[in-house]
Amino acid sequence: MSNPLLISSSLPQFTDITPDLVNPTITELLAHNRAAIQTLAQQTTPTWQSLPASLEELDDNLSKAWSIVSHLNAVTNSPAWRDAYNGCLAQISAYYTELGQNADLYQRYQTLADQADFRQLSTAQQQTINNALRDFRLSGVALPTEKKQRFAAIEERLSAICAKFADNLLDATQAWHKALSTDELVGIPDANRGLLAQLAQQRGLTGHIVTLDAPAYLAVMMYADDRPLRETLYTAYCTRASELSNDGKFDNSALMEEILALRYEQAQLLGYQHYAELSLVPKMASSVEVVMQFLQQLATRAKPAAEKDLAELRAFAATLGIDDLQPWDSSYVSEKLKQQKHNLSQETLRAYFPAPKVINGLFAIVEKLYGINIQAKETNVWADGVTYYEIREHGQMIASFYLDPYARANKRGGAWMSNCRARRQLADGSTQLPIAFLTCNFTPPVGTQPALLTHDEVTTLFHEFGHGLHHMLTEIDISAVGGIHGVSWDAVELPSQFMEHWCWEEQALNDMTAHIDNQQPLPTELLDSLLAAKNFQSGLQTLRQLEFALFDMRIHSQAPLTSAGMQREIDQVRAEVSVMPPPSFNRFQHGFSHIFAGGYAAGYYSYKWAEVLSSDAFSRFEAEGIFNRATGQAFRDHILAKGGSEPALALFTAFRGREPSIDALLRHSGLEVTPA
Fold first, then answer.
1. Which of 156, 464, 493, 611 is the catalytic position?
2. Nearest alpha carbon to residue 540 among 489, 574, 583
3. Residues 619 and 279: beta-carbon distance below 8 Å
4. 397 strand-pairing partners
5. Burial environment of residue 267 by CB neighbours within 10 A (0 to 12, 13 to 18, 19 or more)
6. 197, 224, 240: which is the final residue of a domain?
7. pLDDT value for 214
8. What's the number of domains the chain is made of?
9. Residue 432's beta-bridge partner residues?
10. CA–CA separation, 326 vs 65, rounded Å?
11. Which of 68, 127, 418, 491 has its CA 20 to 30 A from that of 120?
């Protein structure tokens, strides 16, 4: 029987892929690749075909298998999957470090770059070779043997402890729940109560429980009238994976210290002052100073608005009998204030956003913009509620994706797009089509009713689909610079944030709303309320993002800190930019998986940096029509199709006709300075 983990041109048969297949498959692939690379590294007159193209094929075979393993570990997490995944991390890390430190291979690439006919190669081919040379240097290829070995050991250790950080966070989240009394349910809407009852049933319990998974957590924090309950839940949530919860069983403190220390050591080995300097080498931003200046500039713009937001929130809280507004009151009071001020409640809105209608509306929007067609197809999937779709153009399939939208037990929190398969030209001249995994954690359907999404969940879906389009609509046949690959990390959020803008447009909302009872689209008065509330408390929200970005950049641009030092650093950042610092027991950083277990270390600023690009890009649609087919085609041609084959700034400038401006972001965020 063939190995279901080794997919070729067919789709993966997920129900046949078991954890016991992982280690032997990955071990075999690595051995095969190593033998092939040894031969590739010895050639004297390398060509595009004999070196980068051959290496890409080896990498693609490994990536296709490992992406499935990574995905199933994230969405069907179990002890067996966790062991299988973690058991191969060291092998994978060692392999890629070896590859990056292969001096013979580096020399062959340098020979290619130095050849007279290098300029005859396509832009994408040249970019691939230049990126490879840069990455060899960043992998320590030029280090003496002893330092190379230390660099490799650091890489291997980092891959293990970053995964452990994520495991601790998931375990700490899953380990906590609280049974709710009838009194504690007061204020929570029926739809949310249904979810809390469903969570109890799933654990074999009666009544209602609240967990620390986002849909349940938000249901209580936004609606529960019981203030002590909100405080209890807030405390549990913001101390996850720290020394203050689960008797320290899942405490990430030591891991955070080691991660920072190893990153710092790695940067020093390569001759950089600190990790932030190393992290910025492949990014758009030119220096730590430029990033800090950008963040401080935004903070200066946002702080007066945030102070006004907070004053309004405190005044309104007093009318509810809350004279000392605390962080566990913020979501609750905000929701009540939004209802009063804008006649808008997330629950009222939710009835207009059944998930099937939203998903079909999203597809209708991108079909109008890009001339594509999206259709669901039956295939083998890993869980109930997962759907597979094909994207076609002129009747021809060009890409496909899996959508896994709902929260469930043993599924990592958050939302993300990941690569199942990359677009590339195969040895026989045919094209391997891209496939994406799109994962969210929305409030699931309750009973026979379809899932009803909040507007925030709708924007999350559009965001992740924007990443998916970047991956799937690429026209570059080299996987290293196609889709999201090779894109500067601080520009990779451009297509995702860009898609969010359609969630605020009347024409688009008509495509994605239908009341659960009468199928009517969002009425004008609710639309007006939604738009009026668009920048509700945007000052506070902007400062919160800047707080995280500044903390990330500061802890990575100095000598490694202890856990206590990190706490002091985040306290200092809050003292400078926050208008409502959280209580001293808050351990946000212990769950900051973006920087400790994801790719955003010394790069969290990218969300705001890319928001400048996405807002400015959308302003062209505002001027020319949000469904202007020609404008959509231009965005597709210059941004989505080109992937990382050219520098991000060059692609943006080609689309916009000029370099980016911050004005559109300030306007869209309600932060622009109005003339006196």
1. 464
2. 574
3. no
4. 392
5. buried
6. 240
7. 92
8. 3
9. 424
10. 48
11. 491
DSSP for 167-199 reads HHHHHHHHH-EEEE-TGGGTT--HHHHHHHHHH
Report the distance separating Cα 511 and Cα 362, nearest Å.
8
| CB-count burial class (<10 Å; 0-12, 13-18, 19+) for 308 | middle
> pLDDT tens-digit profile of 368-392?
999 999 999 999 999 999 999 999 9
Q: Name 347's Cβ contacts closer than 8 Å, sequence gap at least 6.
A: 189, 191, 192, 223
Return the DSSP state at 438: E
**Rounded to a whole number, what is the distance in angstroms from the first to the last CA of the chain?**
75
Q: Is the distance from CB of 615 to CB of 664 less than 8 angstroms?
A: yes
What is the domain range of residue 451? 355-525+607-668
The first and second tokens of residue 3, run together, are 């190995």
Tell me if 320 is assigned to some domain.
no
Say if 654 falls within a structural domain.
Answer: yes
Strands 431-432 and 424-425: antiparallel
Query: Which of 645, 621, 646, 643 shows the shortest CA–CA distance to 634?
Result: 621
Q: What gap in Å lies between CA 416 and CA 600, rounded to an integer? A: 13
Gap between the Cα atoms of 406 and 446, Å rounded = 11
Q: Are residues 495 and 416 in the same domain?
A: yes
Task: Say which CATH number the domain at 449 has.
Answer: 1.10.1370.40
Residue 211 tokens read as 């967990």
* 127 and 213 within one domain: no
To the query of whether residue 464 is one of the catalytic residues in this protein, the response is yes
Instruction: Give the CATH number, domain containing residue 94.
Output: 1.20.1050.40
**Of the candidates 487, 549, 553, which has an alpha carbon nearest to the alpha carbon of residue 276?**
553
Instruction: Say how many C-beta atoms besides its own lie within 10 A of residue 134's C-beta.
Output: 12
pLDDT tens digits for range 263-322: 999 999 999 999 999 999 999 999 999 999 999 999 999 999 999 999 999 999 999 999
**Cα Rg of the chain, angstroms:** 25
pLDDT tens-digit readout, 356-373: 999 999 999 999 999 999
Length reported for the chain:
676
Task: Note whether 505 and 366 are same-domain residues.
Answer: yes
Q: Both tokens of residue 270?
A: 């390569």
Question: What whole-number distance in Å separates Cα of residue 231 and Cα of residue 583?
Answer: 11
Q: Are residues 127 and 188 in the same domain?
A: no
- In this structure, are 435 and 503 located in the same domain? yes
User: What are the pLDDT digits (tens) for 453-482?
Assistant: 999 999 999 999 999 999 999 999 999 999
No. of H helices and E strands in the chain?
Answer: 26, 9
Q: How far apart are CA 92 and CA 83, in angstroms?
A: 14
Residues 454, 443 contacting (CB under 8 angstroms): yes
